[in-house]
Write a structure and sequence with these properties.
- The protein has 11 helices and 5 strands, in the order αααααββααααβαβαβ.
- By secondary structure, it is mainly α.
- It has 2 domains: about 140 residues, Arc Repressor Mutant, subunit A (Orthogonal Bundle); about 80 residues, no CATH class.
- α1 crosses α2 and α4 crosses α5.
- It starts with a helix and ends with a strand.
Length: about 210
């Protein structure tokens, strides 16, 4: 049984965000909590290239209708990513664990999963992938800074926000984790912003709401 989860862990580790193995095997416990064996096997067949169910079905030798059903169920569970073009069938692709699959589970956390993630996150954030190209950064928001430091446009929070027509707010998984662990604060949970194409996925999965 563990073989399929070890394969999936390696598959996720090959994606940009990484998913390193550990001596304790906590990463496998996390995957067993999130994926059934059937879902793990199907996730292994996906890449970062968006594909329609028909293409995936041919590769894994399953009927197209069944493949489409399974893919959509996995997308709704936050295990893979879905892109919905206006005039064609939805397309599905693999997605990295963080930032990605983990955040998609903000509405389905339980104490056991939170405890496993508390053990795993420090190890995940310590890998070279995150050190060389961190996905998280602090940016100044309308604050004065020394003249010698030039702030490029991509570092301006205001310009980033104004460049998008659709903005969605979602619960912060970090704050929700802490509350489940009995270490919460009095800050509001709704504090994560999603922009652009990502808003469609969040809306379809009931993970957030649009704001003005």
């Amino acid at each position: 049984m563990d073989d399929i989860y070890k394969q999936l862990a390696k598959h996720l580790d090959d994606l940009p965000g990484g998913f390193p193995s550990t001596e304790s095997g906590v990463e496998l416990r996390i995957l067993r909590r999130l994926f059934t064996l059937e879902e793990a096997a199907l996730a292994l067949s996906l890449t970062l290239l968006p594909e329609e169910p028909a293409h995936v079905a041919r590769r894994i030798h399953l009927p197209e209708e069944e493949t489409a059903r399974r893919l959509e169920e996995m997308a709704k569970k936050g295990l893979i990513y879905r892109i919905q073009p206006k005039d064609s069938a939805p397309r599905y692709l693999a997605w990295q664990f963080a930032i990605g699959i983990w955040e998609f589970h903000v509405n389905s956390l339980d104490r056991g999963l939170v405890e496993d993630m508390a053990e795993y996150i420090p190890l995940l954030l310590n890998i070279e992938t995150w050190k060389k190209a961190p996905q998280l950064r602090t940016i100044p928001v309308s604050q004065s800074i020394p003249v010698e430091h030039k702030v490029m446009s991509y570092e301006s929070a205001e310009s980033l926000v104004r460049s998008h027509r659709r903005i969605l707010v979602a619960p912060c998984i970090c704050r929700r984790e802490k509350r489940l662990a009995g270490e919460g604060c009095d800050r509001p949970e709704e504090s994560c912003l999603v922009f652009g194409q990502g808003t469609d996925y969040y809306l379809r999965n009931g993970l957030g709401r649009l704001i003005d």
